[in-house]
Amino acid sequence: MPINTIDGYTFTVNDEGFFTNREEWSEPLAEILAGLVGIDDLTEAHWAALRFMRDDQAKTGMTPTLRRMQTQGKFDVKELFTLFPGKPAKKMSYLAGLPKPVGCV
Amino acid sequence: MSQVLILGAGTAGTMLANMLVKALPPDADITVVDKDDAHDYQPGYLFIPFGTSTPERVRKSRKAQLSPKVRLVMGTIQRVDPEARTVTLDNATLDYDWLIIATGTTPRPDMTDGLTDDRVWRKSAFDFYTLDGATALAKALKDFKGGKLLVHVTEMPIKCPVAPLEFVLLADDYFRHRRMRHLVDISYVTPLDGAFTKPVASKRLGGLLKDRSIRLVTDFAIERVDPEKRTINAYDGRALPFDLLVTVPTNMGAQFVTDSGLGDDLGFVPVDPKTLASTRYERVFAVGDASNIPTSKAGSVAHFAVHVFVENFAQAYAGKPMTHAFDGHANCFIESGRGKAMLLDFNYDTEPLTGVFPAPAVGPFSLLKESRLNHLGKLAFEQVYWQILLPGHPLPVPTLMTMAGKVPAEKTKEA
After folding, report:
1. Pick from B192, B236, B295: which is nearest to A86 by CB?
2. What count of other Cβ atoms lies within 10 Å of the Cβ of residue B148?
3. Closest residue in chain A to residue B235, using alpha carbons only
4. Distance (Å, rounded) from C-alpha B157 to C-alpha A102?
5. For the whole prediction, is pTM greater than 0.90?
6. Which residue, of B74, B248, B256, B260, has the fewest CB within 10 Å?
7. Which domains are delineated in chain B?
């Protein structure tokens, strides 16, 4: 497993760059990673989505899908596309320090 | 005497019922519930639109596939009460000691805005995972004069995740034979970031699409169908026009699963991936597509899973701990057109492998590579399904994945 080091933060990732250990994540690290995926500033709206993902994953063991964000988290999918342009499911999992959502098999 | 109740007499439910007859003590009462007596060979749906199979050929009686020792009850399932251990049908209430949910997954075109609009549905927009849809699409393809054909996957998971890829490759073949391929602009539109879910296979299959001049549109999260303009619109603002849309709608578990509070967001039953036991209720299990296990929703998985499940269930039934573990083994022939097919083999932890699949009696089949023998294997499977799989006879292939004869794809040279 590759290990990434950014600004003194060290974390293990899989071949696609997603965190393999959610405990290696922290909020300041997420702020740094956001810049890498084209998000300049994490606003409260961004954080609401990321916190929901982490809480939900802690409960279910699985990264929530966009559908679950909509049905359980009451997020507006279109807004998530605006907040995390292009590939929200992947960007959100990455910034929340979680694996890419499965369901994709 | 214990009452074993299986909901659903499809691939998983039928195989399971027949195998439990042999695996459980003779006084076990095995009952299966389904709404009708029509058992379809679902892999056959893929060939109906292209005229190489027919609606009559894929459908047989459910009852005829079941052992005479299994009771088949016809009724629509409305609710399961896992505390009282009862199942309510529209015409009866059944008690159970052990419940196995095998009601599969259902395409839900109604979950996408605009898709079932009268102006497009089954006129220019079709599904092919239902007998009605596949039959209607056969006529539409026959009448198609050319234009933009979109083959589209709404969201994962879907039943038989390779089928839409097979469809697009067979469509290429179909129009080539009709000498009108140059009139048809074919695109494969997927919510994933590549042609398939598993990276290795995705690369190989993506190459195949390119070779056949099929466009690949990735990361397409559909928001709605615009029936007026005949476009599919994504959340990110992309809109793709179509003359013919062949879509795989959202797949969901049976409605009673959700209504009974037994399902996840999509109505699939959360289970332990190794034992298929419900994570919430005792004496409740889910086999086949109805569960949430993280592997393909496909008949091959149901087959491999049922073989492991039967041994575990016989132990649980006898009051012993379950000692066997399912590994998520899946294998599927991918019909790639031009009389050829490829074979994929993978499980929870192992990516699809190249090499050969060790099937002593009928193989070896090439893995992840097109071959004529793979195509013949796919055709032969129809008879295997009815005569070996459903009755629960053993097949000459291992249930759990083995590494014999296989090479991880990254270690082989590109073919």
Report:
1. B236
2. 17
3. A78
4. 9
5. no
6. B74
7. 3-105+253-317 (3.50.50.60), 107-250 (3.50.50.60), 330-411 (no CATH)
